[in-house]
Structure formats: structure tokens, C-alpha cells
Amino acid sequence: PQCHVAMHDGGGQRMTPELRVDDALIEKPVFGGGSGGTAVLDDSDFSVSTILKQLESIQQGTPKNIVILGTRHCSLLHQQIIELLSYALVLSDNHLFTSGATGTHAAAIRGALRANNQELLTVILPQTIKRQPREIRELLGQVNRVIELGHSELPLDAASRICNSELLAKGDQLIVFAFHDSKTLRETIEEAKSLSLLVTVLFLD
Fold first, then answer.
1. pTM for this one?
2. Phi, psi dihedral angles at 50 (to 5 degrees)
């Protein structure tokens, strides 16, 4: 499998070169700053302190509202990356916004909870807590700020589009973990760019 990273500014312009991960060496991408630089960390360097140094350029000295969205279907390695990323973001005083479900969102919630600052974590659900899988309901039980939009009458994909728009309205930056055929997430990426959010996309295929 290959892993591609692309960053876009609010106008849709590519900001960094594409990174590829092959089977020989699992390299973990960390997102670069406004200059277009991108750092790639190998296993020996992938520590929370290193992530924080790399994320300094994202912060630019001012905490931001960061939205993390992504697929339910991601590997354990990708979940660990997402968890460490969200942990580092909250530790550096950014407010993390995400949604429910397994995979990306659950990993983002776990990382934020590890940072032990509930004021900097908000979870917005397209439907209700009761509609979440049991393990996610247990995880959400640890979160102080959970907003239920209650669109239970809608199909999940339609409810998720509304939820994603709600999240984007609260964010300064969007970080997405997706597959190339993730239609709803790709629509969300385009919406974020139209709102002039900084958009970082990690394609998992």
C-alpha cells in the first residue's frame, strides 16, 4: 500500500510535495507549515515531543480550532498516528473538533482525552449517542462536550454531511484521513477550501 499526503491552502493550491510510503519502510507524515515544508518521521523519531516541534508551524504561536475527520476503516497504525496527532494538538492548546464512529474519530477522541483537557475537545454527532456503536458510546461517556444534532430520520451519509458542515463552521483548519473514493469526505474537503480553511489531507490508499 502507498500513503499520499497533500496540503492545500484556502484557494485549493497544493502546498507540499506528495509523500509516498512503501512496504519497505513505514514513515509517518507530519504536516508542515506555511512555507510548504513537510517533515517525515521514521519509527525512532516518532515521539510526542517531536510531533509538537513539527506542529509548531501549524500553530504559528496562536491556538486554533482544528477539525479532524476521516474514515471508519483505517489500520491500527493509522489510528495510532491520529491518536498521537490529536494528543499533541490538545497539549499545544488547540481546540479539537471531531465526530463519532470508529476509526479516525475514535482515535482522535482517545488522543484528546489523553491530553487531559476536556475544555479543548468537542464532539459533534450527526444523529444521537444511542445510534453510536457500544464501544463509541463508552468512549463518549468520558467526553464533557458532546453535541447531538439528532438527524436520526436521515440516512447516515446525509446526516454526516450536515454534521461535517457544522464542524467546519467552528474550525480554522481541517485535517482529513480518507480514501480516494470517500465521496462524503471529498465533498467536505471542497467545502472547507471554499470557506478558506487550511486543509491537510492524508489519503490512506
1. 0.74
2. -65, -40
